[in-house]
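idk why but the lab printer keeps eating my pages so im just putting this in chat instead. protein + protoporphyrin IX containing FE:
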Amino acid sequence: MAETTKNAAANADARSDPDGRSDPDGRAGAEPGLGAAGSQLSTAPDESAPLPGLGVIGWARWFWRQLTSMRVALLLLLLLSLGAIPGSLIPQTGIDPMAVEQFRADNETLAAVYDKLGLFHVYSSVWFSAIYILLFVSLIGCIVPRTWQFAGQLRGRPPAGPSRLARLPAYTTWRTAATPEEVLGAAHRTLRRRRFRARLGGDTAAAEKGYLREAGNLVFHIALIVLLLAFAAGSLWKAEGGKLIVKGDGFTNTLPQYDDFRAASLYDTDQLTPFGFRLDDFEATFERGGPQKGTPRTFRADVTHWNGADGAERKASIEVNHPLEVDGTKVYLIGYGYAPVVTVKDGQGDVAYQGPVPFLPQDTNNTSVGVVKVPDARDKDGKKTQLGFQGRFLPTFALDEVRGPHSTFPALDYPVLSINAFMGSLGVDSGIPQNVYQLDTRKMKQFKENGDLFRKFLRPGETVQLPDGQGSLSFDGVEEWASFQISSQPGKGWALGGAVAALLGLAASLFIQRRRIWVRARPAADGSGTVVEMAALGRSESPRLPEELAELAVALRETAPPAPEPDDTADGADGSDGAPEGAQDEAAARYAAGDAARGTAAEDTADDDTADDDTADEDTADEDTVPEGTPAAGTAEETAAGEPAGDDRENPDPAGPSEGERA
Amino acid sequence: MNLAAAANENLASISNVLIYSAMAVYTLAFGAHMAEWVLGSRSKVGRTAAALTEKPEGRAAPAPASAPAPAVQVTGRGGTTVLERPQVVTRGPAGGRDVPDGPGAAGGDEGGDLYGRIAVSLTTLAFLLHAGGVLTRALSVERAPWGNMYEFSTAFSMVVVGSYLALLLAKKPVRWLGLPLVTTVLLDLGLAVSVLYTESDQLVPALDSYWLWIHVSCAIISGGVFYLGAVGTVLFLFRDRYEAKLAAPGGKRPGAFADSVLSRLPAAATLDKFAYRVNALVFPLWTFTIIAGAIWAEAAWGRYWGWDPKEVWSFITWVAYAGYLHARATAGWKGRKAAYIALIAFACFLFNYYGVNIFVTGKHSYAGV
Ligand code: HEM
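predcted complex ->
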């Protein structure tokens, strides 16, 4: 026993390549202890990075290896999710600039700290970018060699089986009267028919299947890069602008027509898609009763649009979930409101302003505010002056003592316009752009009436006279307006393609099992017939593997029907290998003792053939410590035949003795 | 005005009655499961502790011969004679503890087992009532029954119980999930009817889209199945610690209660595998949920990704689950560490649902919490 243990330790030493990476065949992810048979079942990177050699290059290599290791990739992934959190809790400039301003006003000191850390724009901050850029560098550094390796595996052939098939996770054997050639030929055909890549070599047919798993995994990771690039392109070339349009008005897609326009750094405004549209009608309906009374039910903007300067006109309707698309530019309906139509006459009785004035809704019942600016007016003496009105529009007017005048429903059930009036300078001539929804009253005088501030409520059709004969304002009616977002973002197709590819790759990677099957046929040692052995090895332990092996065995038995064992004392035909029988006997004993519960239960809980990663490659030690019937030649043969398994990503310290060996 | 069709109040109240009835029956199922566990605690059949302590030296220092001894699995395939059935020898993962699964809650006690079966039958009945409640709710509002948190919660626990029953139907030994599931489903429904309840009603136009069906139903299914995985993971952590204690010679012994409960659970390896399979199975669905959400966002808001809080937390959840899958392929991160990541990932999912809806405002904050 002590002997064997020492032997095993020596063996493990001999097999552990001090530098897994220098392995020319790139057998990272090999199944240790199985030599070539278990190699190249995956292309996962090697985790046993050796200590850096001397010099800068050594360190650089070491650093690169660290960066592209699974462990660092994992840490970066966890960091990425951690880093994304603050952006969801702290207001972001890119999403809600108003909230950011509010926050700054409320917490000055904290805001300063946040500013330093870039916490108001987390997703474009230096540190967040650093995390994902490192992650993607790591990803590329990981994918390139893996793809290379995988291509090599595809060109290569399924590796020869280990000397003792019985050691593999699933194994079966029987004796037949057919000749070894017949058995192998049939095995080769059967495997091929089942879409295995198979080859015949000596007394063994070797086959492999499920390369799609690895391919899927690579596709998934590459697709992530495509996604990131598409996202980056989208953010760099994106442009979007807003436009508020009153019913009946139109818009052509040129810069001056926008109310506001944001273009990303690389966007060229000459690229604006030439098109235009007109808002013909707008329909909004609201819940009329029940606890959610007033909740919007439909918004629909009916538009007429045309391509180019004067293309053919077409009708379309834009709804909340249904934007209009014109040559890659999309028009979204994002808001709506009311525009009271007013006529303002000045002190001379001339019409100084006429038309709809969009008011902005303030609450769910569409209490709206807005201003009417009249820059060209004359007072009652004929002098030039300017008039300004602050208005509140209540689509369904109600008055109570607590809330004062307010709106109780968003639709136009009982519209009322309330106004305050000012005269003086609007400040519009200063050249500084003004907010059209605010009145700068610093240089204006508010009208008063009998000592009180002048304030009037108007129903449609009513007119109010300003004090001192300075003019009048008529509330002629109400129009609707809708606001649109016009945006173009390149790379959407790539993003979608990347996402779909990632999804498919992921599914392949998680649901497909990569596995190898060996069929060996040798003349029985006692000369009567042929001993057939079949074994399977998976990337990971899968409950489907034994089943598949059994199915194959059933198929093969058509050609190689089992023959009865010559007699019970015969110790397996394969003189060099007593293990199969031994293993079976022992297993049967354990089974009888009810000790095999784990194996079967694990099988039962499997609701799919998802691959598991608890691979059999942890048992470095155990592999070589099975003493029964293992002649020294067996070990020697294996060390010679199987190339050293360079890597053991399951075992952080492949050279060190594992638990079994220490015993 | 057909969109604004008045919600059929009759159906809505039928739905409420069904949900309350389901809760009553779940409560009975809970009682039956408790009876199963209590009766099972008397039984001493096939306990892990016994199994483990009988041969402690074999565990501390596995002799080569007793190391990963293969278990026999006989897979018959339409053969008529014994000879035609290939005997496949399988070997379990080596290096792990060679611990058999516990006998289940009833612990081999006949009375306990009977109660366990009753509990499953009651759960099935409750599930039917529950599903009926969700269905009538859908009919009453003439749309997908997940427009607000109340509806989301009822649908979520329906998926949880449904997947559990589906696993049982597929003859998977998952009755150990029964008690924790029924308990949490009761809590979830209780929360739904008391705190989150919203009258059945129509949706705001932004939610009126077939993407609501696709995106939200996938989110609910992912969540429900992730929840099964999380339960498996939690039990794995307990059971793993328990097995470690037993395996450590001279170490601290588990308490009597822990011993009684944990020894009846499946082996840590089985629980771990269960959790992994479940999580890996729905991870692509969760990925799809996010993609569908992005497509919908593109149609509704003019951008497919805008770092809205809900989007951020979906992303965080996704990355955390990706981290979990990664961890399972990373040296030194398997087992407990990976399990912790899985739990964090599920916590992110929960926060995305409750936390973001309640505490954070964003584009996803829709009518009626
Ligand atoms: C952008 C960040 C990344 C994400 C979101 C991600 C996600 C995932 C997911 C979900 C899996 C599980 C699929 C499976 O088991 O086949 C996986 C597997 C894998 N990833 Fe990544 N990954 C990322 C970066 C990386 C990097 C940087 C590396 C290289 C070090 C890497 C190497 C691997 C490998 C080798 C597997 C397969 C593990 C196995 O064979 O079981 N990944 N990744």
